[in-house]
Design a protein that fits this description.
Layout (H helix, E strand, L loop, with lengths): L15 H12 L2 H13 L3 H29 L3 H11 L8 H38 L11 H5 L1 H6 L2 H20 L2 H30 L2 H9 L8 H14 L6 H6 L8 H29 L9 H11 L5 H35 L3 H21 L21 H28 L2 H8 L3 H27 L6
Amino acid sequence: MAITGSTGGREGWSSRTAFVLAAIGSAVGLGNLWRFPAEAGNNGGGAFVLFYILCVVLIGLPVLLAETLIGRHGQSSAPESVRRLAKESRASKHWDVLASLGVLSAFLILSFYCVVGGWVFYYVGIFFSDLVQTGITGGAFEGRDPAEIEALLPGLFGNGPLMVGLDLLFLAVTYFFVARGVSGGIEVMAVWLMPAFFFLLIGITIYGAFGGEFTESLTYLFTFEPEKLTGPVMLAALGQAFFSLSLGVAGMITYGGYVGRNVNLAGTSAIISGADTAVALLAGLCLFPIVFAAGLPANAGPGLMFQTLPHAFQSMPGGSLVGILFFIMVSVAALTSSVALLEVPTSWMIEKFKLTRIVSSALVALGALALGSLAALSFNMLADFRPLGFIPLFAETNFFDTLDGVTAKLFMPIAAILTCIFVGWIADQKLIDSENGLSGGLHLFWRFLVRWACPLALAAITIVGIFPDLFA
């Protein structure tokens, strides 16, 4: 059901609230709950966090608004929306490359993202089994050696069939929601699961505040020490702000195509980016008190969620219950993002090939499963396979890391740079002005950011991605 008369007869969001929740779900994912705490831990805490917030406001939010207004104006799949705006602006239709690159990125990310989603499902099962054995009040993994707990993830990596099966399970759940449509599937999921996600996140954060080292975590995350604000830290914060909002994958262009004309995009984009940032900060306040209370290091990197945290739950009252609730919460965040990733190429296939939604989403899901299976097996049976070994940047990366690297270091930032150039310099500014919901000084400031600050910042992310030792 579309907002009456607002999406040209296309299926769309039933309300502004539904769009906001779906868009927040698209942005909020493993990047907030997994990558942000790991990046904060590896980059000195407060200096990273404060610069990250600044980057969200000055870089992330302007690009988010630029992507959304393209979709709302075009009322189509991402590439077609760009083509329509380009045609009305008397510009080349080939600017659709920015959206096509985003669609490809969404598909590639979906293929390995569901592998990581499978890890989350695995830990839900592990903690459920432990909860049955130890009860609600007991600590997690009672009687088990810490080394044994930390070995759970490597043990999973070594089991190829299980990795592929978990990938299939996570992808199947993602497909279920997308195949049901925008209002009947994606919106229903967002309206029900996003409030549940926030309830769990706030609840576990309160638990950590009373049962963990909350004051130490606040100090760690929000104490600004100027000497720690180095070039690499600033670039890491900039990159986190960009990836956290899921920019460069045509997601917000696609979701914007379902938005009615009665929605103010500037205010809505601010809500989305604000909620995404709040989730990232809450994730830090959720994880670090538990980690610090257990006397474990904050700079555990990617292993923070899957190795350090399960170990920390061992020493906490009700650790098994909190553990399963935590990973259920992470599952919800991962699903809302994977649904958005699947919707991007599905929307394109529906429009390009005139296929039904069920068939289009199934074909995309099958393609993602094929690539995802190779990504899952790259931790075991295909560990020595280097798909792009002839390129120095990817000479030592397995299939999983190659998919991640190609999208994060090349496709996503390039697509975002092209978006800024297209919206800031190429598209008819009267059309842009009619869509962005800004006026006066804010409008001029946004245009300056999109034209100058955002492309330069995104270029820095691209250069560092290609030449990682340049600013080390």
